[in-house]
Design a protein that fits this description.
Largest sheet: 3 strands, parallel
Order of helices and strands: EHEHHEHH
Number of strands: 3
Number of helices: 5
Structural class: mainly alpha
Helix content: 25-40%
Distance between the termini: 30 Å
Strand order of the largest sheet: 1-2-3
């Protein structure tokens, strides 16, 4: 009866879900990314992200956040470090050629999930098996 306005999903550079993003845009549904930076171990590991960060004089996290915003998603960030919170609010328009490079780089690897509730829910199986 009522269409939702926003769907919060695991969406990041390492799990970009282009089909879901396309479908959501076509159907007037906003996607909220969580966690937009993937995991602490992933930020800055992509050579494309590091190269663009160096070129633009910003951090790899700012590159990923800016890319996420340019994709048309809502970015839900989390940090306990005041300086990082301020830094993460500074987004930049990525030049079109860099945005396309990021799109291709994100799609060039298998999706990597970082949020998996299976263990926390004490399930005897992985909810994402077979995907």
């Amino acid at each position: 009866k009522y269409q939702p306005a926003v769907n919060q999903v695991e969406l990041s550079f390492w799990n970009p879900q282009p089909e879901l993003l396309k479908w959501s845009k076509e159907n007037g549904l906003l996607l909220e990314t969580y966690p937009p930076l993937g995991s602490n171990q992933q930020v800055g590991k992509s050579l494309s992200v590091k190269d663009i960060a160096c070129k633009l004089g910003i951090t790899p996290a700012q590159v990923i956040i800016s890319w996420s915003v340019q994709r048309g998603t809502i970015v839900l960030l989390k940090s306990v470090t005041p300086s990082r919170i301020v830094e993460n609010l500074k987004i930049f328009e990525t030049p079109p050629e860099d945005f396309e490079m990021l799109e291709k780089a994100a799609a060039s690897h298998p999706p990597q999930r970082v949020v998996n509730p299976s263990a926390g829910w004490k399930l005897p199986f992985d909810v994402f098996d077979g995907q």
